[in-house]
UniProtKB/TrEMBL annotation:
One family name in Pfam for this protein: 3HCDH
Every 3-hydroxyacyl-CoA dehydrogenase C-terminal domain range: 196-292
Residue span, 3-hydroxyacyl-CoA dehydrogenase NAD binding domain: 15-193
The protein, known as: 3-hydroxyacyl-CoA dehydrogenase NAD-binding domain-containing protein
Taxonomy, superkingdom: Bacteria
InterPro entries listed in its UniProt record: 3-OHacyl-CoA_DH, 3-OHacyl-CoA_DH_CS, 3-OHacyl-CoA_DH_NAD-bd, 3HC_DH_C, 6-PGluconate_DH-like_C_sf, 6PGD_dom2, NAD(P)-bd_dom_sf
Length: 293
């Protein structure tokens, strides 16, 4: 196949564009700005812009309070995040990361739009938690430059990034991505493209099982979570974690696992689907398994 030449060295400019200003986009923007990058955060509405700004501010405040980040560093980080709503910003960036909702159609639109403006030396990352990297790569004219950069929620606190390599991902991009992730203070694990990658393939069925247990009336939500917190030293129980991740995100990961493997062990619990149908999506709407009013 004939692709653009990516043998050249990757861009070493310090400009990053994050497309999508939801929970993950804002968290990733904070991680990069704290490491000295100039971040353009692409937000489609005033509402998402204000939400992202509030979440970055509050997270930085908490990190300052704990002495993890100095006041000056937090102010610097905040000043390095600017909000954009035009694709031209892509043309200046050495790194572009999409963190838009977990829908192949939405990601296709975004990747195709970015493609028109990408620098020839830019690395493109996708924060997808379940969609095939190989499939997403085909929305770029040069699929070799796409790599999965799967951050975990809350991105400013979680150390891991799954670095997902698709069929087309070039070694230059993979190695550049490893360096990039280490530069922002995270630990990468390199994973071949596969349904659910590594962490979600284990984590999501465990959380899904908690919904089966709850639905069958075996124990209350509080008791289920207490079980995993005290019995396995998890920092948060599976149902509380579902609320943090978003029940819609969790359901879509289970559906992708089932669809891509055909293995019924990945069927979503009926109660999980019921919560999603009811709009009880977790912390982001203040109501999921638990209430956050
Ligand atoms: N920024 C900065 N600080 C934060 C924060 C953020 N975004 N979120 C929480 N904190 C701080 C709080 O301020 C609090 O500080 P103090 O102890 O000084 O009060 C501390 O972290 C603990 O927070 P909480 O009291 O609110 O609640 P908690 O004790 O349950 O901790 C947690 C929250 C850090 C998120 C912890 O529960 C945890 O680590 N949970 C596991 C998270 C996890 O597994 N994430 C992966 C999800 S899977 C995923 O993301 C992949 C996917 O594709 C679905």
């Amino acid at each position: 196949m004939l692709y653009l030449n990516l043998e050249n060295k990757l861009s070493d400019n310090n400009k990053v564009v994050i497309v999508g200003a939801g929970t993950m986009g804002a968290g990733i923007a904070q991680v990069f700005s704290l490491s000295g990058y100039d971040v353009s955060l692409y937000a489609t509405s005033e509402r998402s812009k204000n939400g992202a700004l509030a979440s970055i501010r509050s997270s930085l405040e908490r990190l300052c309070k704990k002495g993890i980040v100095e006041q000056g560093a937090a102010e610097g980080a905040l000043s390095r995040v600017k909000f954009v709503n035009h694709w031209e910003a892509i043309a200046e960036a050495g790194v572009v990361i999409e963190a838009v909702p977990e829908s192949i159609e939405v990601k296709k639109t975004v990747l195709e739009a970015c493609d028109n403006y990408l620098r020839p030396d830019a690395l493109v990352g996708t924060n997808t938690s379940s969609i095939s990297i190989t499939r997403l790569a085909c929305f770029l004219s040069d699929p070799s430059r796409l790599v999965g950069l799967h951050f975990f929620n809350p991105a400013p606190l979680m150390s891991l990034v799954e670095l997902v390599v698709g069929v087309h991902t070039s070694p230059t991009i993979k190695e550049g991505a490893v360096r990039l992730i280490e530069k922002v203070g995270k630990v990468p694990i390199v994973v071949q493209n596969s349904p659910g990658f590594v962490v979600n393939r284990m984590l999501c069925p465990m959380i899904n099982e908690a919904f089966f247990i709850l639905g069958q009336g075996v124990a209350s939500a509080e008791e289920i979570d207490q079980g995993m917190k005290l019995g396995c030293n998890h920092p948060i129980g599976p149902l509380g974690l579902a609320d943090l991740i978003g029940l819609d995100v969790l359901l879509s990961i289970m559906d992708v696992l089932l669809e891509q493997t055909g293995d019924s062990k990945y069927r979503a619990a009926p109660l999980l689907r019921e919560f999603v149908d009811a709009g009880m999506l977790g912390r982001k709407v203040f109501r999921g398994v638990f209430s956050y009013e």
